[in-house]
């Protein structure tokens, strides 16, 4: 089983942007890679789930199981989800074990509110989405900070270069 790179952080922190860049960077190096976006998985894999804490945990469990199956085929999964609570991240860790590489994509809430790339915060302010702004984001524990990317330091290219360098170092023993 290969490594699984799981990018997590607040909505608007830059997870999807960095995950897509990482996907391309690894493909450019002829590494087999597969992207699992938490938002897209909600439209199919987890379309029967809501957003209450138990449903969020189940959503992450399902994605972790898919990532595990992909990794067992020698394909490197790159996952992007919010995973705001310890319970969700614990479920992911339980499923993926030592093959999991946490990537904490960090940006303060006020910056995420300003960016709002998917319009989710706007929808939350309009009452269309509940529990987004006020939902607690539990600070990552030390073992969940294997790679930390603060997207308010440097531009997208700089953040991507740092992430790619870290990812390649963790894949140094990978062979096709």
Task: Outline the fold blueprint.
Blueprint: E1 4-8, H1 15-28, E2 33-37, H2 38-42, H3 53-72, E3 76-81, H4 86-96, E4 100-106, H5 109-115, H6 120-125, E5 147-150, H7 156-170
Helix pairs in contact: 1-7, 3-4
Gross geometry: globular
Cα-atom radius of gyration = 15 Å
Number of strands: 5
The end-to-end distance, rounded to whole angstroms, is 12 Å
Numbering strands along the chain, what is their spatial order in the largest sheet? 2-3-1-4-5
Spans with pLDDT under 50 lasting ≥5 residues? none
Average pLDDT figure? 92
Helix content: 40-55%
How much of the residues is beta strand, in percent?
A: 15-25%
Supply the number of helical segments.
Answer: 7
Helix and strand run: EHEHHEHEHHEH
Task: Please outline the major beta sheet.
Answer: 5 strands, parallel
Secondary structure class reads: alpha/beta
Short description, anyone?
The protein has 176 residues and is of the alpha/beta class. The protein has seven helices and five strands.
Description:
This protein is an alpha/beta fold and 176 residues long. 44% of the residues lie in helices and 15% in strands. The protein has seven helices and five strands, in the order E-H-E-H-H-E-H-E-H-H-E-H. It has helices at residues 15-28, 38-42, 53-72, 86-96, 109-115, 120-125, 156-170, and strands at residues 4-8, 33-37, 76-81, 100-106, 147-150. It has a five-stranded parallel beta sheet, sandwiched between helices. Helix 1 packs across helix 7 (156-170) and helix 3 runs parallel beside helix 4 (86-96). The protein is globular and about 50 Å long. The relative contact order is 0.23.
């Amino acid at each position: 089983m290969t490594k699984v790179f799981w990018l997590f952080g607040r909505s608007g922190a830059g997870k999807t942007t960095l995950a897509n860049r990482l996907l391309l960077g690894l493909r450019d190096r002829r590494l087999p890679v597969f992207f699992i976006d938490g938002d897209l998985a909600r439209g199919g894999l987890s379309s029967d789930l809501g957003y209450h804490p138990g449903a969020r945990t189940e959503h992450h469990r399902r994605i972790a199981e898919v990532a595990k199956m992909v990794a067992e085929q020698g394909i490197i999964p790159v996952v992007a989800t919010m995973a705001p609570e310890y319970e969700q991240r614990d479920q992911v860790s339980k499923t993926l074990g030592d093959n999991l590489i946490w990537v904490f994509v960090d940006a303060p809430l006020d910056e995420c509110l300003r960016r709002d790339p998917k319009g989710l915060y706007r929808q939350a302010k309009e009452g269309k989405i509940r529990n987004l702004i006020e939902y607690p984001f539990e600070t990552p524990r030390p073992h969940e900070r294997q790679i930390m990317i603060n997207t308010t330091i440097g531009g997208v290219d700089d953040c991507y270069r740092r992430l790619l360098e870290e990812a390649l170092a963790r894949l140094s023993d990978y062979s096709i």
